Amino acid sequence: MRDTSPPTAAVRAPITASVTDAELYELRAARSADDLWPMLEALYGAHPGYAAFRAELEQAMRAAWEARPAELKRLDLARDLEPDWFQRPGMVGYVFYIDRFAGDLKGVRERLDYLADLGVTYIHFMPCLKPREGDNDGGYSVQDYREIAPHLGTMAEFEETVAAARARGMSVCIDMVLNHTAKEHDWALRARSGEAAYLDYYLTFPDDSLPQAYEKTAHEVFPAHAPGNFTFYEDMGRWVWTSFNEHQWDLNWANPRVFLEMAEVMLFLANRGVEVLRFDAVAFLWKRLGTRCQSEPECHMILQALRAISRIVTPAVIHLEEAIVGPAEMLPYLGRGIHDGKEGNLAYHNSLMVQIWSALAARDTRMMSHVLATHFPPALNNATYANYLRCHDDIGWAVTDEDAAAVGLNGALHRAFLSDFYEGIFPGSFAKGELFQHDPETGDKRISGTCASLAGVEKALEAGDPVALDRAIDRVLMGHALIAAFGGIPLIYMGDELGMLNDYGYTDYAPHAHDSRWLHRPLMDWALVETAKSDPASVPARLLTGLRTIMARRAATPEIHGAVPTEILETGHRALFAFARRAPTGPLIGVFNFSEQWQSLPLDWASLHGASLFEDALSRAPVGDGNGRIPLPPYARLWLR
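RE: above sequence
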């Protein structure tokens, strides 16, 4: 249908030799107006302060644009011309806590060459904004969004570090917690002192009648050490919604002032040079009585509006939406229905991670193939996945009873098997981990552990078993080769490239002792880098060399572009997982052996699915044994052209 609406003033303006900043802003504002204002009208239009809110938001957006540094405005233009920049094969992520990686921001600047050698083009600084003192949920209890944690450096040092990374072609990602602030945040302190305007920034209640009603259906995040969703404060005489921990107060996103404040924070951080904003706990933004208070429709309206603001004021910035939920609930955060192509640019592919570990334990990829083929589309619109084997968090066994039954398994028994296997107590397990948040009522048992320890490196070293060690290293490399080719940005968690093991000393530090996730958040062991240089046969050398090769080959393989559709393939072998990346120039077929046994596939199978060169894009070697078959050694990883 032809658009017959009148052009905006910026579009009607005569073409001149150059476009002014003001004209460019107006063009972008017109481009994204329909993505922004209808969402805000639906959310807040009935609020008595809506007109003033809209005027203040427009003023804040223009002020942020005027304050945006020239270098970042140039980057905005580049990203407008290359909107697929984050989907390209050259994107490789690396995730770390600044202090545990390099001490502080100055230390990060000194380690950028190490990251460049690894092929990294995307750096995620784990929570670095100023948190509350003491227990702060790993930095996710933020006291001030406009300051850096003092032990890491200053905001000026942060900008210097981000600029140094950008000069090396690295985009910096940081966390912006949307659902809650620390109870020591200025807004919370003013609410606690009784200021009515700031009380309305949070969800507080004069008695427990409504909290009890909400509790009947609301989801508990930390049932073991932070049960329930509400905390009573005697000095206030009020109940406060605290979904995560007592010190994390949930914001009232039904108040347009909260949206305005957080939009201003978002633009402030973008103007410091951040290119990826990881919005934390987005599923919890909107509360509705009688529901789980997760992933309500308003969550997606808020997130689309925030993205539209970014596209107008800071278009170099993309949004990563953290929602560790099932596929049906996760995909809308990348845009579905009216939000298609207009919401998050990235979301964690939690299901892929869970299915990789499940298939490794069971030596059976049938459920993995079923889940990825059934629940996920071949391609996404203006979005892609953040793929990972491990992260800072625990692993929750997100295996539904329905998906387990589809391949002849009992869901509850399989989840229990996975927990026992990766805790290391299942007979014959190669893994070594610890339980996190065991809930006896539901049977839910989650797991902590580094990639290497869960993959078997730790047990193999303890046993002095060279064959088991070979297999463990191959599991790590196979997993990274899979996430590098599947579609999306592969994320390497700090130290996984060196085979760092579980850090059992976390229990000796009181603020960490209650949280087994610190097991897989060890301090970076830079001595392992020296080991890798001096001993090519060492675990650090084999993994570092292997991951460098995988990421270099990824960058040279155009079929891996995030917009290329991914088709799950049937191999007829339980131990083999395969997919095709259907690029216009021809497919790339990924084949992965999830067992310690040799497997093989007919060359005719590969031909049927589009292979013609019979060359492994990963090793650059020809495939085939001369007898019409493709041999696949234990934990083989093959990118077949």
